[in-house]
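Title: Comparing notes on inverse folding

I've been comparing how different people in this forum approach sequence design from structure. To keep things fair, I'm posting one structure and asking everyone to reply with a full sequence. Here's the target:
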C-alpha cells in the first residue's frame, strides 16, 4: 500500500445529504465499514439555507423515509416543512452515527495508479471507490440577455428569494412556472404585490383528491416507481398545507398577469411566445388525466373514497400579451425561477456529457469505482425523493461490496 493509513480509506462519499447518508447506511449493512462522508457544510444545510422562508411551505415528496427508518408522522402525505426535514436528518445522524466529516470541501477528484485522489481544503484522500452524492442543482441558471436589464431593476434567482418584504416597491416579474415559480408567485400575491408570471409548460396536479393528498394516491398506484417519464418532475401544485389547490387561471382572475414562455430579453422589455393558451390547456389536460388515473385505481381496488368534485375555472387565455415593457408596468424586481445547471468541474474524469451531466447507468459510470447518487431518473421517478434513494443507494453499495476482493486464507 503506497499511502499512509490516515490518508487512505476504501470508500469516500462526497455529500452528507439524504443521498450520502443513505449510501453510508447501505454500505454498513453490507459490511463495508471502511468509508467516510465528506460534507462541505453541515447536515441539512441545503434544506436550511437554500430554501425560501415561507413558514407554511412544504415539500411535495412522499413522507420522510431513509434506510433504517420511516417517519409515519405524516400519514396524510401533506409534506414536511424545511425545519422538519432538517430536524429529521439531524435525528437520523444521531441514531445511526455515520462516519461524517463536516466542513470538508472537495476541490478535485482524479484517478491514477489505480486509486482515486481527492484533494480537499483539509488534505488529500486516496480511495478505491467514490460515491458523488451532491445532487445536480449547483449553479443558478439565468437566461442570456438578463445582463442587459437596467441596474435599477432588482434581479435575483429563486434560490436567493426570501420574502416579499425584502423586495423594492413596485411590480414584480416572475419567470418560470415550475414549483418554485408558482410558490413564489403565490407568496407575492398573498402579500398584496402586483405580479407578472411567465408561464412555461409544467403540468398541473391536484393537491388533494377524493379525500387524500395526491402524493398518497400516486405512491399507492406505483407511479413513483415508473422507470419512464410518466410524470414530469416539474409539475406544480400548492405547497401550502390545508390551502386550496393552485390554479393559475384563478390567480389570473385575481389580477396576476400571465404570459407565455420567455422568448427574448432586452434592456426595455421581455417578449414571450404566443403559447399561453396551449400551455394552460396542456396543464389542465394533465390535471384531469391524473384524476382519471386515480378514479380508475379507486374503482379497481374497491376503495371507499369521497366522490370527485368537478369544477373548473373558465378563463380566456387566447389573447394573452406577448411582451412586457419594464417602464410601462413599473417592474422593479425580476425573480428568475429558471432552474439550475450542474457543476461537476472538480471531478476531472471523462464521465460527463457536453452539457456537464454525468453519464450513468443506475449510478454506475464507465469508470470503475466512480458512482453518482441522488440525481433525477437514475432508476425511477423516486430517485430524487426520500423514498427512492434507498433502493438506488443499496444498488451502488452492492456493486462496491462485490468489487472487494475476498480475504486470502
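Reply #1:
Here's my take.
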Amino acid at each position: 500500500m503506497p499511502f499512509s493509513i490516515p490518508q487512505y480509506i476504501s470508500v469516500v462519499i462526497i455529500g452528507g445529504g439524504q443521498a450520502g447518508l443513505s449510501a453510508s447506511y447501505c454500505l454498513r449493512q453490507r459490511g463495508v465499514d471502511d468509508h467516510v462522508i465528506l460534507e462541505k457544510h453541515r447536515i441539512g444545510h441545503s434544506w436550511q439555507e437554500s430554501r425560501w422562508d415561507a413558514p407554511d411551505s412544504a415539500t411535495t415528496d412522499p413522507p420522510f423515509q431513509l434506510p433504517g427508518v420511516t417517519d409515519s408522522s405524516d400519514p396524510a402525505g401533506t409534506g414536511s416543512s424545511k425545519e422538519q426535514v432538517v430536524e429529521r436528518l439531524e435525528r437520523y445522524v444521531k441514531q445511526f452515527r455515520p462516519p461524517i466529516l463536516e466542513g470538508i470541501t472537495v476541490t478535485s477528484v482524479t484517478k491514477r495508479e489505480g486509486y482515486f485522489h481527492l484533494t480537499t481544503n483539509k488534505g488529500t484522500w486516496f480511495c478505491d471507490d467514490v460515491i458523488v452524492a451532491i445532487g445536480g442543482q449547483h449553479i443558478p441558471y439565468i437566461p442570456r440577455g438578463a445582463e442587459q436589464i437596467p441596474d435599477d431593476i432588482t434581479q435575483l434567482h429563486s434560490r436567493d428569494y426570501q420574502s416579499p418584504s425584502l423586495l423594492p416597491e413596485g411590480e414584480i416579474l416572475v419567470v418560470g412556472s415550475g414549483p418554485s415559480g408558482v410558490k413564489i408567485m403565490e407568496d407575492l400575491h398573498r402579500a398584496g404585490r402586483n405580479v407578472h408570471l411567465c408561464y412555461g409548460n409544467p403540468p398541473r396536479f391536484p393537491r388533494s383528491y377524493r379525500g387524500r393528498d395526491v402524493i398518497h394516491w400516486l405512491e399507492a398506484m406505483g407511479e413513483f416507481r415508473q422507470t419512464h417519464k410518466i410524470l414530469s418532475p416539474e409539475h406544480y401544485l400548492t405547497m401550502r398545507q390545508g390551502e386550496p389547490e393552485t390554479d393559475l387561471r384563478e390567480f389570473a382572475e385575481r389580477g396576476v398577469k400571465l404570459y407565455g414562455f420567455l422568448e427574448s430579453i432586452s434592456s426595455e422589455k421581455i417578449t414571450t411566445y404566443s403559447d399561453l393558451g396551449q400551455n394552460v390547456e396542456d396543464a389542465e389536460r394533465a390535471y384531469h388525466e391524473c384524476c382519471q388515473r386515480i378514479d380508475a385505481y379507486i374503482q379497481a381496488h374497491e376503495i371507499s373514497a369521497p366522490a370527485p368534485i368537478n369544477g373548473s375555472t373558465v378563463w380566456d387565455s387566447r389573447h394573452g400579451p406577448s411582451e412586457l415593457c419594464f417602464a410601462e408596468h413599473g417592474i422593479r424586481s425580476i425573480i428568475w425561477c429558471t432552474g439550475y445547471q450542474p457543476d461537476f468541474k472538480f471531478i476531472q474524469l471523462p464521465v460527463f456529457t457536453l452539457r456537464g451531466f454525468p453519464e450513468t447507468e443506475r449510478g454506475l459510470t464507465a469508470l470503475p469505482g466512480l458512482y453518482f447518487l441522488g440525481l433525477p431518473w437514475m432508476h425511477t421517478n423516486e430517485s430524487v425523493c426520500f423514498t427512492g434513494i434507498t433502493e438506488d443507494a443499496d444498488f451502488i453499495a452492492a456493486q462496491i461490496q462485490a468489487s472487494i476482493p475476498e480475504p486470502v486464507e
